[in-house]
Amino acid sequence: MTLVPLVSWITRANVAEGGLLLPSLRWCRRHLGWWPGIVVADMGYLSGPSKQAARAGWQSAVVTKLRADMKLVPLYASATRVECPQGQPLEWWEYEPGSGQQWFRLPATPELCAHCCQATDCPGHFGYAAGTHETLLGLLPLASRVAQRLLRQVRPWIEPAQSFEKNQLGLGQMFFNSLRLTWQMSLWADSAVLLHTMAGLDPPDGSGAAGWLASVSVGVGTAGGKMSREGKCDFTRKSARSPNDFRNTL
Questions:
Q1: Is residue 48 included in any domain, yes or no?
Q2: Pick from 147, 150, 91: nearest CA to 124
Q3: Alpha-helical segments (H) within the chain
Q4: How distant, in Å, are the alpha carbons of 138, 194, 218 from that of 3?
Q5: At which of 99, 134, 153 does a domain end?
Q6: Do 138 and 210 have their domain in common?
């Protein structure tokens, strides 16, 4: 599986990544005529208001992990387990757009119901407002099989995909005080990622981009006006982020 950047955002370093969620959805609608129904994101997109806006205005679910210090809502026994008031594990059933409710139901073979004192009066399904907690409930509950599978199988792709830009291209060590320069570096980085992807699609005989790419040492930056394998730049500096620094968010 190969991830290819659709759009890169150039912002000041003090702009939270969560603030790029809705602009990204708008960009997809405008340029592609489509936007994702499910967004798998890192902890930078944990903001409840942004998730609520994506759910209510775009019908897009934003799936992230739960921060360790966040409190659970009553139906959650843990970040991956939902229980009824008597402790019987539940499974996600459906989301009801009209009422904004998330519905959970008993599994096919409940373990505790046969011994529950409220079994005769139990409806067998339980509804909770999606807005109660945008991470645990929202449009796609965190405890659902779908969300957990996405976090296990899709979320781990993000770090390897970003490692090429941050490590091999050296962007993780660069901070720029010029938006124009940052924009140019972003274009170069995205071009390198696309070229890397094209090389992977070439035949294995090395006749295409793969053979050419293997013979080239990709570096970023200049040293004395020439390309440098070390990725060092005279016009960059390593420091703590300040409001005047810019970054490339892929």
A1: no
A2: 91
A3: 21-32, 48-58, 145-153, 158-163, 179-201, 209-214
A4: 26, 9, 19
A5: 153
A6: no
In whole angstroms, give the CA distance from residue 105 to residue 75.
12
Q: What residues make up the domain containing 124?
A: 63-153
Beta bridge partners of 217: none
Give backbone dihedrals phi and psi of 76, rounded to 5 degrees, phi first.
-90, 120
Residues of the chain short of pLDDT 70, as ranges, are 1-4, 159-174, 202-250
Domain count, the chain: 2
Tell me, yes or no, whether 138 and 170 share the same domain.
Answer: no
Q: Helix, strand or coil for residue 93?
A: strand
243: helix, strand or coil: coil
**CA gap 10, 177 in Å, rounded:** 12
pTM above 0.85, yes or no: no
Whose tokens are 């459906």? That residue is: 94
Q: Are 59 and 36 in contact (CB under 8 A)?
A: no
**Is residue 194 one of the residues assigned to a domain?**
yes
Boundary of a domain, candidates 118, 153, 188: 153
Query: Is the residue at 78 inside a domain?
Result: yes
Q: How does pLDDT run across 100-155, given as a tens digit for each residue?
A: 999 999 998 888 888 888 888 888 889 999 999 999 999 999 999 999 999 998 88
Contact predicate 33/6, CB 8 Å: no
Residue found under tokens 């901070």: 175
Asked if residue 176 is part of any domain, the answer here is yes
